[in-house]
Amino acid sequence: MGCSLDFMKILKSLEELLYELVSWLVFYPLTLWRSTTRPLSMMRYADLELSDRPESQYDDTLSPPLFLLITLLLSQGLSTVFPTIYDPSDLPKALGTGSNLLIARGVIFGIFPLCMSVVLLRWKSVALTRTSLRPPFFSQCFVAAPFVFVVGLAFDLLFMPGNQGDVAGAIVMLLAILWYGQAQVRWFVRDLDIGVAKACLAFLTAFLTATIAAAFITVLLGVELKNWS
What we know:
- By secondary structure, the protein is an all-alpha fold.
- It has one domain.
- The chain is built from eight helices and no strands.
- Helix 2 packs antiparallel against helix 6, helix 5 crosses helix 8 and helix 7 packs across helix 8.
- The longest helix is centred in the first third of the chain and has 36 residues.
- It is globular and about 60 Å long.
- The mean pLDDT is 85.
């Protein structure tokens, strides 16, 4: 009897897992479209959803951190299509698996929503706690996902052999930063009730901090993991 109940629990778990995975085929494109075309609405939506019961949150989209992780996974897969000047065998052995590389990319690119959220809370003079950081971070994940995907595409173009993708890569990178910047400036204007000039200053502070931190962590991870390999 006990074995039968355990087997039914396993089947039920597999059923839920299958449904969850298949539902991503619908809700991922929907979330991506809404985040790209209506970033401020999605950021407001993220704030409102956190006030719902846990089982009711993000019922018609993917949760923001999951959305960001899936986007990074797709970006990682897309990178394998492009020819590159870098030899994959040069990667540290610790990053040899797709899951470890995904985690590393998640940490690196997760710095952008983190820095934007911290700057918002600092300007609001709100105490920085795990509870206060959660709403703006979730909001930022919706906007960070399209940004990091396009940035990943830009790097794929820039790293093509013979400089053949340099112009396209630079244009794509510029477009990604401009889109991200306008969304963030509008977000700061709305949430902080400040002018455009101050909102631009808040964005540049957060963006430059995130870029420097991401570059530092990338280098640090590369050096440390090579030492471990």
